[in-house]
Design brief:
alpha+beta, 8 strands
């Protein structure tokens, strides 16, 4: 998990794909955290992405960093614990202008049943089950 976390953290921006019905949606994200032994992402409850993950929790993430790319698939499971929100915002203090733990808008999602692959054109792929 640490290698996957470090890759996404170092990439800075990754792209999160969700589904709305049968229509895919992809958007840039930047939050990745390790809390309680799992990877977490964060968004606002008022955003369409939150509704999409609740309706269909299967998500995919992709990012590039230093000539390598990652593909990660997982189930995004809402974690309503204030401690999880606090941990995320401690690691992303710039988000405190828009979010606060327990504000009714901050949502953090644990990535469960995750599988990832880090690939490049010059190295063998590395596979991970988280």
């Amino acid at each position: 998990m640490n290698e996957v976390y470090e890759f996404l953290k170092n990439a800075g921006t990754y792209y999160l794909a969700t589904l709305e019905g049968d229509r895919p949606h992809v958007r840039p994200f930047g939050t990745i955290d390790v809390f309680d032994g799992a990877l977490y992402i964060q968004t606002g409850r008022k955003k369409a992405v939150a509704d999409q993950m609740k309706a269909n929790p299967r998500v995919e993430i992709s990012a590039m960093h230093e000539g390598r790319w990652i593909r990660l698939s997982a189930r995004a499971v809402l974690d309503e614990r204030i401690e999880a929100q606090e941990h995320m915002l401690e690691n992303y203090p710039q988000l405190r202008a828009m979010y606060a733990p327990g504000d009714g808008n901050t949502e953090v999602y644990r990535l469960e049943d995750a599988e990832a692959c880090i690939c490049s054109f010059t190295e063998e792929p590395k596979y991970y089950k988280l």
